[in-house]
Predict the structure of Isoprenyl transferase.
Amino acid sequence: MIQPVRRAAYRLYTHRLRAQLAGTSLPRHVAMVMDGNRRWARQMGFDNPAVGHRYGAEHIHEVLGWCAEIGIRHVTLFVASVDNMRKRASDEVENLMRMIEQVVAEPLLGPANPWQLHLAGRADVLPDSTRHALKLAEDATAERGAGFHLTVAVGCDGREEIVSAVRSLLEQEAQAGATLDDVAQRLTADAIAAHLYTGGQPDPDLVIRTSGERRLSGFLLWQAAYSELYFCDVYWPGFRKIDFLRALRSYSARSRRIGA
């Protein structure tokens, strides 16, 4: 009897949170640091904490459904940093990459899926199979016209991304015959932003990080300069719709002061 009562209470609370958001300002673009997969698996009693990556990957599509339902058309997900790829045990990285291929990339190919995939990060640090699966999904979804954009950030480091963007800008200018002094005189933030991994995409209005950690860990350092930040204590696989709606409620209650 307890479970039906809990489910009814959950539905009622979800409806209440959703009603509170009616008529409020919602983020156009939400970025998420999906942290806590392994800790969630340990909490749930799994012998192998890497199992949490599968549950976390599967949960992505449910969360994307919440975003589409509420009208959030730009989502960026932080899957793995360059440090994650280099420093974690090889079997864990292999498992994570397999989850990206099978659970993240492949379902996006379904004709009923509205999301257009964009990739952010260093493709050269990914295994060939992962790079191929993501590129296949990116190409296959390129013409989708529903207006839902999913950016998967894998092999990312914010400082390295900024260095790479500046280098790319300088190389482009040099090929056009510009001198270093010319570039210095005309250099703008927008010019650098165009060479970031996310060039052409809007900056996130809201960044959500799960697991209770209160830092960005190098995620979207440039793009999140004026983003609202929301830190949630639950681990990513246990991130519920009410947690998501609470984050949106917190965002809607804030007075955004860009640059202040």
